[in-house]
Write a structure and sequence with these properties.
It contains 20 helices and 34 strands. By secondary structure, it is an alpha+beta fold. The strands form seven sheets. It has a nine-stranded antiparallel sheet with strand order 6-7-8-9-17-14-13-11-12, covered by helices on one side. It has an eight-stranded parallel sheet with strand order 26-25-24-23-20-19-18-27. The longest helix is centred in the last third of the chain and has 20 residues. It starts with 6 loop residues before the first helix and ends with a strand. The relative contact order is 0.09. Pfam families: Glyco_hydro_129 (PF11308).
Length: 743
C-alpha cells in the first residue's frame, strides 16, 4: 500500500526545539531537545516528528546539564532527578536512561519516566502488536475509543506481544523498540480528534540498576518495525529456527502442516459407550451408589418396552456414574501416580460390575477414545496435534495415546505451574494442586507486602524460578503415565512478568525464569513443547503457541457473556464433555467484528518475526469454527499468514463425515501443502493489491507468494491470474500453484 503526503505539510507540523542537539549519520539528521526529549529527523528533504517534548520524571519537568556531544553521540544528566541519558546513532537512534546510583527508591513509590508522546498530528497510522498485528488509523474514532477502553495502561511484556510499535508518517514508518521491555506502560487518549499514545517506564527498587533503553528506526514499509526487531533478535542470539529445532528433535516433522485439535471430556465413559441403557439403569439402582433426586425424577418411572431414554436422561445417568466412580476412588490430587492408579481402579471396577451393559473397556472415553482416533485416521487426516485439557483421559486409556502416536499424531496435555490453591477448594483443577510448600513459599509478594492472587482470584500466583525440581519431576510423571509426546504449558509463554519482593526478583528475572523452565522441559527427549501466546520475550524451547492469531475480547460485554438470547452469546462452560463456550457457534458483534477481524486492520507483524521459529494458532477459547460471521475471513487470513487451524472435537464427532471432521479435512487440503513448502521460510513482504485492503499478498524468503481475495469480486493479478472471491492463490517458488477457499 502506497500513500502520498506532502513533505511540506509534514515539515510544518514539526516544531524546532529552542535548544537542540544534532546527531548526524549518512543522510539522517536527528535533532534532540535534551530538556524535553522532543525529537525530529530530517532525511531525504523531509522532516519527521519522532517524539513530542513532554518528558517528565516523577511528575516533574527536567533540565539537561553536563551535556557532551560528538557527531553521532551525546550524553547529559537531567535535573532534579539525576537521571543520566545517552543518545547514539547505531542502526537507528538508541537512547538510554539510567537511574542515579545514589537515588533510593521506596517499594511503594516507584519513579515514572514519561518519555514518549506520539506526534498525533503528524501520524496517520499506528501498527500495534497487541495480537498478530493491528493496523490502526489514528483518525478513526471507533479505534480511538476501543484502544482507550481496552488497552490504555497496557504493559509491554504480556499485553503488547512484541516490544515495539510503529507510526506511519507519509510513506515512512517510525518504529520504537523497547530494549528493556519490562516495567513499562502505554496510555491511549484522544487529542484534537486523533488517537494519541504516550509511554512511560517505571524505575523500582528491584530494577533501578537496569538502564531503560529504546531504539528508534525508520523504514518504508508496514513490516519495517517487525523486521528491525527480528534483526535485533538475531544479532542478540535469541533466535532458534524451526529448522534448527527439528535437527535436535526430528519429532517436529509431525508438526509441519498439522492442524491443532482439542479433545474435550475428562471422565471415564461417554454416552456412546453404553449398549444396554435399561440394564445400566437397573444396575445403578441396585449398586452401592445413591441416584440423585434429579436422576430418580427422570428415570425411576420409566419402563422398558414402554418408554425410552432421551439424550438428556442418558447424559444424566452417565454423568452420575462417572461422579460416583470419582468419589469412590478419590486420589490425592497432588500425586500423579495416585491419580493414574485411581483411574485404572475406576476402569477395572466398572468393567467388573457393569461391563455387561457397556462396550469393551478399551473403547471407552469421552474426547480421547479409540473410536475418535480411528475416525481421524479413516478421514484421511495425516498430521494432527491433539490436545487434552486434563491428563485423566490418558490415565484411563494410555493405550489410546499409543494408538494416536502410532497414527503419526502428536498428542499432548495442558499443564500449568502458575497458580497454587489449597486442597479442597477445587480438587478437579488438577494443575493447581501443588504442594503446600510451593503455595506458601513461592507465592509472589507485591510491593505492598500482600501476595499476588492467582487465576480468577484463586490461590496465589507463583514465581517461576521457585521449586523447579518439583516442576520437572511432575512433568516427567505426567509424560510417563500419560505417554504423551507433547505438552502445552499454560501462561509461561505469555511473558506475564511481575516483581517479587519475597525473592527480590525483578520482572527481567521473572521472564528469564519462564524461559529457563520452558527450555528445561523442552530438553526432554522427543517432546514437543507449546505454550500460551508465544509472546516475544518468552519463547525459549517452544515449537508452537496458542493465542496469537485470535486473542480474547469482550470479556465484560453482556451480550457475549450473559445474554443467552443474543446471537453474540459465547455459551455456558458446561457440560464438561462438550461445553457450549467452546462448541456453540456465535457471531462477533461490532465494533469487535470490524476492528479485530476486518482484513484492512490486520498486519502480519508476529509472523514477520517468528514464522520460521514457531507455529502459532488461535487461543483455545476461539477455535476456527467459533465465530460464524467472520469464519471465512479468519480462515483466509490464516492461510495468507501461514498459521494453523484449530478445531475442537467431542466424542459425538466420531463419524468421518461429521461437520467438524469435514472442516479438518478441508483445512488439511490447504494448510498441509502450504506449510510443507513454507514452514522454514521467513515472511518477508506484505502488501495490499487494492486500495481498500481487501486483496492482500504475502511473500516468503524462497520467493513463494500467497494472495488472498477477501472481497466478493474476482481479482486479476498483474500477471493475469484471477483470484476468485473469498479465496487464496498460492504461487510457490517451485512453480506449483494451489487455490483454496474457506468452506
Amino acid at each position: 500500500m502506497k500513500l502520498t503526503f506532502s513533505p511540506l505539510g509534514l515539515l510544518l507540523l514539526v516544531s524546532t526545539p529552542s535548544f537542540a542537539l544534532t546527531l548526524e549519520q549518512s543522510d539522517q539528521h536527528w535533532q534532540i531537545d535534551p530538556d524535553t526529549l522532543a525529537i525530529s529527523l530530517k532525511q531525504d528533504s523531509q522532516t519527521f516528528a519522532i517524539n513530542q517534548g513532554s518528558l517528565q520524571i516523577d511528575g516533574q519537568t527536567q533540565q539537561a546539564t553536563q551535556v557532551t556531544q560528538s557527531a553521532e553521540q551525546a550524553t547529559w544528566t537531567l535535573k532534579p532527578s539525576g537521571v543520566q541519558v545517552s543518545a547514539q546513532l547505531q542502526q537507528g537512534l538508541n537512547i538510554h536512561f539510567r537511574w542515579p546510583s545514589a537515588g533510593e527508591i521506596e517499594r511503594q513509590a516507584p519513579k515514572a519516566l514519561r518519555w514518549f508522546d506520539l506526534s498525533e498530528s503528524s501520524t496517520q497510522t499506528l501498527l500495534l502488536p497487541f495480537d498478530e498485528g493491528m493496523r490502526v488509523p489514528t483518525d478513526n474514532p471507533t479505534w480511538t475509543h476501543y484502544l482507550i477502553d481496552n488497552h490504555s495502561g497496557a504493559n509491554t511484556t504480556q499485553d503488547l506481544k512484541m516490544p515495539f510499535w510503529s507510526a506511519q508518517q507519509g510513506e515512512r514508518f517510525i518504529s520504537y523498540q523497547l530494549l528493556n521491555a519490562t516495567n513499562n506502560q502505554l496510555h491511549f487518549s484522544e487529542q484534537k480528534n486523533k488517537l494519541d499514545l504516550q509511554a512511560e517506564h517505571w524505575f523500582t527498587p528491584l530494577n533501578q540498576s537496569e538502564p531503560f533503553s529504546v531504539r528508534i528506526t525508520v523504514g518504508d514499509e508496514m513490516l519495517a518495525g517487525a523486521k528491525a526487531y527480528r534483526d535485533w533478535r538475531e544479532a542478540a542470539g535469541l533466535c532458534v529456527s524451526l529448522a534448527e529445532k527439528r535437527k535436535a528433535n526430528p519429532q517436529i516433522e509431525k508438526m509441519i502442516g498439522a492442524s491443532h485439535v482439542y479433545l474435550f471430556g475428562r471422565d471415564l465413559i461417554a454416552v456412546q459407550d453404553v449398549v444396554d441403557w435399561w440394564g445400566l439403569r437397573d444396575w445403578f439402582w441396585r449398586s452401592e451408589f445413591t441416584p440423585s433426586p434429579e436422576l430418580q425424577k427422570e428415570l425411576a418411572s420409566l419402563k422398558k418396552g414402554q418408554d425410552w431414554l432421551n439424550q438428556y436422561q442418558k447424559k444424566l445417568l452417565v454423568g452420575e456414574i462417572n461422579q460416583a466412580l470419582n468419589k469412590k476412588f478419590n486420589a490425592a490430587p497432588s500425586s500423579i501416580q495416585a491419580q493414574y492408579q485411581a483411574a485404572q481402579q475406576r476402569k477395572a471396577w466398572l468393567t467388573e460390575h457393569a461391563g455387561a451393559y457397556l462396550k469393551p473397556s478399551d473403547q471407552w472415553g469421552q474426547g480421547l477414545a479409540q473410536p475418535m482416533i480411528s475416525t481421524l485416521q479413516q478421514a484421511g487426516l495425516s498430521k494432527l496435534w491433539l490436545g487434552l485439557d486434563n491428563w485423566m483421559p490418558a490415565f484411563y486409556q494410555p493405550q489410546v495415546v499409543d494408538s494416536a502416536k502410532q497414527a503419526g499424531y502428536l498428542i499432548g496435555v495442558y499443564d500449568s505451574y502458575n497458580t497454587a490453591i489449597e486442597k479442597g477448594i477445587n480438587d478437579s483443577w488438577l494443575t493447581a494442586q501443588l504442594p503446600d510448600r510451593m503455595r506458601e513459599n513461592c507465592a509472589i509478594e507485591k510491593a505492598d507486602g500482600t501476595l499476588q492472587l492467582g487465576f480468577r482470584g484463586n490461590g496465589f500466583y507463583l514465581n517461576p524460578a521457585c521449586e523447579l525440581g518439583y516442576v520437572k519431576q511432575r512433568v516427567q510423571d505426567i509424560l510417563h503415565f500419560g505417554r504423551f509426546n507433547s505438552l502445552f504449558l499454560d501462561v509461561d509463554g505469555t511473558a506475564m512478568a511481575r516483581e517479587d519482593y519475597r525473592s527480590r526478583s525483578n520482572e527481567t528475572a521473572m521472564l528469564a525464569a519462564f524461559n529457563t523452565r520452558m527450555q528445561d522441559i523442552a530438553n526432554t527427549p522427543k517432546l514437543i513443547l507449546g505454550s500460551e501466546d508465544g509472546n516475544a520475550l518468552t519463547t525459549q524451547g517452544l515449537v508452537f503457541a496458542h493465542g496469537m492469531e485470535t486473542v480474547g475480547f469482550g470479556w465484560t460485554d453482556k451480550a457475549m457473556k450473559s445474554d443467552k438470547q443474543s446471537p453474540y452469546y459465547l455459551g455456558n462452560w458446561y457440560p464438561d464433555e462438550k461445553p457450549d463456550f467452546f462448541f456453540k457457534s456465535a457471531q462477533v458483534k461490532e465494533p469487535y467484528r470490524s476492528l479485530l477481524f476486518a482484513p484492512e486492520y490486520k498486519v502480519p507483524l508476529y509472523q514477520t518475526v517468528f514464522h520460521d521459529e514457531l507455529i502459532s494458532s488461535h487461543h483455545w477459547h476461539s477455535d476456527s469454527l467459533k465465530f460464524s460471521n467472520v469464519k471465512a475471513v479468519r480462515d483466509l487470513r490464516a492461510m495468507l499468514f501461514n498459521t494453523t487451524a484449530m478445531v475442537h472435537l467431542s466424542r459425538d464427532e466420531t463419524r468421518k463425515n461429521s461437520a467438524r471432521i469435514e472442516q479438518l479435512k478441508h483445512y488439511q487440503q490447504g494448510f498441509l501443502p502450504l506449510h510443507e513448502q513454507l514452514w522454514d521460510k521467513a515472511l518477508v513482504d506484505f502488501r495490499w493489491l487494492d486500495k481498500q485492503g481487501q486483496v492482500q499478498q504475502t511473500r516468503f524468503s524462497d520467493g513463494s507468494i500467497l494472495s488472498a481475495n477477501f472481497s466478493a469480486q474476482p481479482f486479476k493479478l498483474a500477471e493475469g491470474e484471477v483470484i476468485a472471491p473469498h479465496s487464496l492463490l498460492a504461487q510457490f517458488a517451485n512453480g506449483q500453484t494451489l487455490q483454496w477457499q474457506p468452506k
